[in-house]
């Protein structure tokens, strides 16, 4: 269902809270290049932020 909704949306944003970022899921819903941006509350100096940016993810700060 998530893939179908994302395929029909003009833009797709992923909510990645500090509790979720860096944990593994068994299932990939979308590849990172199919996401408009990741909205997160992770501190900018956190290593995972650099990893996401290196992978090509656009990040938006929550709050």
How would you sum up this structure, described in words?
- The protein is an alpha/beta fold and 63 residues long.
- Helices cover 24% and strands 17% of the residues.
- The protein has helices at 2-8, 47-54, and strands spanning 13-16, 37-40, 59-61.
- It has a three-stranded parallel β-sheet with strand order 1-2-3, with helices on one face.
- Helix 2 (47-54) links the parallel strand 2 and strand 3 (59-61).
- The longest helix is centred in the last third of the chain and has 8 residues, at 47-54.
- It is globular.
- The termini are far apart.
- The mean pLDDT is 89.
Q: Please compute the radius of gyration using only Cα atoms.
A: 12 Å
Report the helical percentage. 10-25%
In terms of per-residue confidence, which ranges show pLDDT below 50 for 5 or more consecutive residues?
none
Q: Number of helix segments?
A: 2
* Most strands sheet: 3 strands, parallel
Question: How far apart, in Å, are the first and last alpha carbons?
Answer: 28 Å
Overall pLDDT, averaged?
89
Shape summary:
globular
